[in-house]
User: Which sequence fits this backbone?
């Protein structure tokens, strides 16, 4: 028929003298192979390559039957379609998929395809190195189960819902859980894939590990905060005591009255001690930030170290008529710690307790131990700490400084130093407090050597 003629780019006149073999790419041999298969089976569906009259490629799909009479074959009948464009489109698609998979399989970023609800339909092999999961473990699952609980709502609103609406989301950062349970930071771009009607049928995501970048930014923010804190202390807290000292010295110089001189000297002494404590905290804090403090833990007798610290602060407590109960006294309990750091930790905790305990109050120092750790607590019946402030008490990005019950000033650095020094020991620090009823600070320190950290400078 005419469709047959058009398929091969012929005209009716050109059909004269054309043989069956001329319609097969590969000539007689190809024609014999196909016909033998048809004659043996009597019914054949075939997809084959052919050529048009001008030599261009032609793809055909045909359905043929042969006519038999006994053992004799006397003809065949068939219908066939030109599927050249479809074949070319399929080939182009396969080529694109192969290139996509080659790229996805060899890049360090995680490439994934999701259904609109988020379910993975494809995950690149890089997932094993990035998250520890195999491709099979994640395909068909939903990534929401891996996201950090605090980030889920933000991801849903800022990325998923926008992509479902057909918008491309260039970048969003969030935490995702690895197979070992730890979290890393991901930066993900999402692109919606739509069908001919514009409906979103797939979501394509490209994610990369930006943990190091996020941590570096956090460290820079912390350092910037510490810098601002230092400038604030130098500008405000140092100026106050120095200004007071200068005023008192001026009064002493202009008023030689012995009675007033004694009073002014008392004020001057108090301001000098306050200034000294402030400088001591600043120097310790700066040294720790620069990591120039040597860390040399040894076996120590805890009772002896506590006695030394109490002895240095006993006058400060006596001035407010505060009694200190040391339940560790004469105990053989030991601790493996850097002597200098341990004394600084205890001094800060005890001086804070004195500062926030009302005159006539009580402070208690106690300790317990288990097989691995020694737990040291400093408790008072003073002002206590508001619940809203407790969460930020040991935060590097914030500090809390308040006046004591006797008007004592603070820098907010003391607990930062305690936290840093305790962490250098692989220990921990926590607080239990009720506003108006006092506070209890507890630190844990190891009873035996800290692996890999002894006798070295960190």
Assistant:
């Amino acid at each position: 028929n005419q469709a047959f003629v058009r398929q091969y780019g012929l005209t009716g006149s050109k059909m004269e003298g054309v043989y069956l073999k001329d319609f097969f790419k590969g000539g007689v041999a190809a024609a014999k192979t196909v016909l033998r298969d048809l004659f043996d089976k009597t019914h054949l569906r075939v997809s084959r390559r052919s050529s048009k009259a001008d030599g261009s490629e032609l793809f055909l799909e045909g359905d043929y039957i042969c006519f038999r009479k006994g053992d004799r074959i006397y003809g065949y009948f068939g219908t066939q379609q030109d599927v050249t464009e479809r074949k070319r489109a399929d080939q182009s698609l396969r080529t694109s998929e192969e290139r996509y998979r080659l790229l996805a399989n060899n890049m360090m970023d995680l490439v994934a395809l999701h259904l609109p609800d988020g379910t993975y339909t494809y995950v690149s092999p890089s997932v094993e190195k990035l998250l520890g999961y195999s491709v099979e473990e994640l395909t068909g699952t939903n990534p929401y189960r891996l996201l950090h609980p605090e980030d889920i709502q933000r991801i849903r609103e800022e990325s998923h819902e926008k992509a479902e609406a057909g918008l491309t989301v260039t970048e969003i950062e969030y935490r995702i859980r690895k197979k070992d349970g730890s979290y890393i930071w991901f930066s993900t771009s999402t692109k919606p894939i739509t069908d001919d009607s514009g409906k979103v049928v797939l979501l394509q995501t490209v994610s990369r590990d930006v943990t190091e970048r996020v941590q570096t930014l956090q460290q820079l923010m912390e350092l910037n905060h510490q810098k601002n804190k230092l400038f604030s202390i130098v500008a405000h807290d140092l100026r106050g005591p120095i200004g007071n000292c200068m005023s008192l010295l001026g009064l002493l110089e202009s008023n030689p009255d012995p009675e007033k001189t004694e009073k002014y000297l008392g004020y001057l002494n108090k301001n000098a001690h306050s200034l000294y404590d402030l400088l001591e905290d600043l120097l310790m804090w700066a040294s720790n930030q620069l990591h120039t403090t040597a860390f040399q833990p040894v076996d120590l007798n805890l009772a002896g170290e506590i006695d030394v610290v109490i002895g240095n602060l006993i006058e400060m407590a006596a001035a407010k008529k505060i009694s200190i109960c040391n339940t560790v006294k004469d105990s053989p309990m030991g601790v493996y710690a850097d002597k200098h750091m341990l004394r600084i930790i205890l001094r800060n905790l005890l001086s804070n307790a004195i500062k926030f305990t009302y005159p006539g109050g009580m402070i208690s120092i106690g300790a317990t131990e288990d097989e691995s750790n020694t737990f040291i607590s400093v408790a008072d019946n003073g002002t206590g700490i508001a619940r809203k402030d407790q969460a930020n008490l040991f935060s590097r990005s914030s500090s809390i400084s308040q006046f004591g019950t006797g008007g004592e000033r603070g820098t907010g650095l003391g607990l930062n130093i305690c936290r840093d020094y305790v962490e250098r020991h692989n220990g921990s620090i926590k607080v239990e407090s009720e506003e108006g009823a006092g506070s209890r600070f507890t630190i844990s320190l190891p009873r035996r050597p800290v692996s890999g950290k002894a006798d070295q400078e960190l």
Observations:
- Residues 258-289 form the longest helix (32 residues).
- The two ends are 90 Å apart (CA to CA).
